[in-house]
Specification:
By secondary structure, the protein is mostly helical. It contains 20 helices and no strands.
């Protein structure tokens, strides 16, 4: 009996199961909280409200990831290579990366304003001008998230990324009981920016211990490769961003209701991405430390892929079997033609996609960010071609997103495997 228990403990340590369960608990709670927020919005204000808020989140996520200019990923890469007792030596690098992210977020505010204006005129959604600040705040929360992930604090990383999205609707509901708020979207945008700003200010002021005034920060930034930074920024935009692009497209060319369905369906099918994100966060440091060990890298690739397939399959099968019941949780109209089969197709595509595991992390660790960029660009091109070829509908939106997900996963996995040292 003792031998069996020893072998089980050894296997769990080898597969990083304890950390996987711990991170999974946090990430699962966050994902359920996100879904609960959308369900409450749907039942209180209708699917249109979900579509409008999802359109704002899509703008913030896509453009905020881009204006971060690759600083969060570079920060994660630098810190993950150091031992815990060497973090103090990284103050200079961390300060430079944070300064770069802050300056970039300020410099790109006019472009954010232009995007908000475009959405106000094309998407039939009354976007408040305050939304201009959303991408800047999101780019700074990414810095917090990646620093925590590199330090091995996967749970804190997940909370940093999702905190404003979860807390803002809750704050809005509390405020709406005290004051009469005419525009639901304006209230949600305000609480989202407020919560993200407070979190960033607390981190920078009390935890980060940065030296932003150091004259050497500028020299460090000038030594960075513009190509690498641009590749990582675009990779962040494209990675997981297909659903956000589809939300914006359906809001602009369809309706807020259709955008609401896409947001709900992609988030339900996105439970798969949530699970692979758990695997990613749990194995990030171990994979980062195996950069020069080919056999270990290949072993980790196989292990993480197997874990991803098992977890994603368990999550997607109930959605495939009971699609209507899942959509009713979010008050998606029953007469929305093609909604149920569209959700089933998305869930099935996610199971197939999980066979590539966390290939995006392997590409980044192997300094092959351009391969992930190629994969994600191919996925985006597939999405756009399919969406503009097919009539705008729930079913065709699901088909477009499924094709994008599968193309991205295939190219990313093949590229990561072939890039591993011999």
């Amino acid at each position: 009996m003792r031998i069996i228990s020893t072998k089980i403990l050894a296997l769990s340590e080898k597969l990083n199961l304890l950390k996987l369960v711990r991170v999974g608990g946090v990430r699962g709670t966050i994902t359920l909280a996100n879904l609960l927020v959308f369900a409450i919005l749907g039942h209180l204000y209708g699917t249109d409200a979900i579509g409008e808020f999802a359109s704002y989140l899509a703008l913030v996520t896509l453009f905020g990831s881009f204006i971060a200019a690759g600083m969060p990923q570079m920060l994660m890469r630098r810190i993950s290579l150091l031992r815990t007792d060497q973090y103090a030596r990284m103050t200079r690098w961390r300060s430079a990366f944070w300064l770069g992210a802050i300056l970039s977020s300020i410099a790109t505010l006019p472009f954010s304003a232009a995007l908000v204006w475009l959405l106000r005129t094309k998407a039939n959604i009354d976007f408040p001008w305050l939304a201009t600040l959303g991408p800047a705040i999101f780019s700074l929360t990414l810095m917090i998230s990646e620093e925590m992930r590199a330090r091995g604090k996967a749970e804190a990383s997940l909370i940093a990324t999702n905190f404003p999205t979860i807390i803002s609707p809750i704050l809005f509901l509390l405020i709406s009981y005290l004051f009469n708020i005419e525009s639901i979207l304006s209230g949600l945008v305000f609480t989202h920016i407020f919560s993200g700003s407070i979190m960033t200010a607390l981190f920078v002021g009390n935890y980060a211990k940065l030296d932003l005034s150091n004259n050497k920060n500028g020299l460090i930034l000038l030594k960075l490769s513009p190509y690498d930074m641009a590749s990582m920024a675009l990779m962040r935009v494209f990675s997981g961003g297909a659903s956000h692009v589809l939300v914006l497209l359906t809001a602009g060319l369809g309706s807020p209701t259709l955008a609401g369905f896409v947001a709900v369906a992609s988030r339900l099918a996105g439970l798969a991405a949530t699970f692979t994100g758990i695997v990613n966060a749990s194995f990030a440091r171990k994979i980062g430390g195996a950069q020069k060990a080919p056999d270990k890298l290949r072993h980790l690739f196989v292990v993480t892929s197997a874990i991803s397939v098992a977890g994603v399959g368990a999550l997607m099968l109930p959605i495939i079997v009971l699609p209507s019941q899942f959509l009713s949780i979010f008050a998606v109209p029953r007469d929305l033609l093609g909604a149920t089969i569209g959700l089933q197709i998305l869930a099935a595509a996610r199971i197939v996609r999980s066979t590539s595991g966390i290939s995006d992390l392997f590409n980044m660790v192997l300094s092959k960010a351009y391969l992930e960029l190629i994969a994600t660009a191919a996925g985006f091109i597939t999405l756009l071609m399919a969406f503009y070829t097919l009539p705008t509908s729930p079913l065709n939106a699901a088909l477009s997103l499924s094709a994008s997900v599968l193309i991205h996963g295939a190219i990313s996995a093949i590229g990561a495997w072939l890039s591993m040292p011999k």
